[in-house]
Amino acid sequence: MSRAQTLVLALLALHLLLGGLSLVIARGEHRSAALRWWGWGLLTYAAGLLVTIGAAVLPRAFMGAAGNTLISISPVLCATGIVSHTRFELSRAWVGAAAALTVALLIAANAADYRAPLANLIVPTPIAIVLFLVAAFVIVRDGPRESRMANQFLAGVCVLAVAVWSIRIAVMLWVLEGAYDRERVDIIISLFAIAQMVTGVAATLSLFWIDVRLMQAELARVAHSDSLTGLPNRRAILTRFIEETSRAARHGQHFALAVFDLDHFKQVNDKRGHIVGDEVLKAAASALAGAKRSEDILARIGGEEFAVVLSSQQSLGGAVDAAQRFREAVERIELRLGVGDDLRVTMSGGVALYPEDGLDWDALYGAADRRLYAAKRAGRNRIVGRDDDTQGKTR
Ligand code: GH3
Ligand code: MG
Ligand code: MG
Question: Quick one: what percent of the chain has pLDDT higher than 90?
Answer without folding.
Answer: 83
